[in-house]
Write a structure and sequence with these properties.
Protein name: Response regulator
Number of helices: 6
Radius of gyration: 19 Å
Number of strands: 4
Helix content: 55-70%
Order of helices and strands: HHHEEHEEHH
CATH class of the largest domain: Mainly Alpha
Largest sheet: 2 strands, antiparallel
Strand order of the largest sheet: 1-2
CATH topology of the largest domain: Arc Repressor Mutant, subunit A
Number of domains: 2
CATH superfamily of the largest domain: Winged helix-like DNA-binding domain superfamily/Winged helix DNA-binding domain
Length: about 180
């Protein structure tokens, strides 16, 4: 098995999908939501993601799950998980050649970052849910009495998740400041 280079934005997107099956669309969406995403268009991002997925499949770090219908599903193998901490990432400095950096084996920080990413993804989902309830109420006002409790629950969930995200971001920022 050879060592692969994975861009940091894509590596972060993969960390959101560890231990579950996902589609190319799921990974592309996670990648586009990442601040380290290098692509502005969905098409370019999807192509980049898919090319890297093929490389990981060839390397045995990603496997295609057989499904009878619908879009193909993928799952990271344990080989990826063991390589995750030692994966080399390439970051690009403005108008400079790629700079190579190695991810350190900083398990607590990585665990906090993965937790933060999970909470951000949950928060986006809850926000979408809230927006959909609002849109349904606008389109079909007679359902408002049925939808209002669901809307309130979703809004409360968003607020709690936002608090968790802010707490983790503060903690990670503090750790980054202490490490420098």
């Amino acid at each position: 098995m050879k060592s692969l280079t994975v861009k940091s934005g894509l590596l972060s997107a993969f960390s959101l999908l560890v231990n579950r099956e996902f589609t190319v669309h799921d990974l592309t969406k996670a990648y586009l939501n990442n601040s380290a995403c290098l692509h502005s268009s969905k098409k370019a991002a999807r192509q980049f993601v898919y090319r890297n997925m093929l490389r990981l499949i060839d390397n045995g770090e990603l496997t295609k799950v057989v499904v009878d219908s619908g879009w193909p599903l993928y799952r990271l193998t344990p080989l990826f998980k063991t390589q995750e901490c030692a994966t080399t990432i390439v970051t690009t400095a403005p108008s400079a050649a790629p700079v190579r950096a190695t991810v350190t084996n900083d398990i607590p920080r990585q665990s906090l970052q993965e937790r933060l990413n999970r909470h951000k993804l949950e928060m986006l989902s809850a926000m979408g849910e809230t927006e959909e309830y609002d849109a349904i109420c606008s389109e079909i006002p007679e359902l408002q009495d049925d939808i209002q409790p669901l809307y309130n629950q979703s809004r409360d969930k968003c607020s709690k998740l936002l608090g968790r995200v802010k707490a983790l971001e503060s903690l990670l920022a503090r750790q980054t400041g202490l490490a420098q």
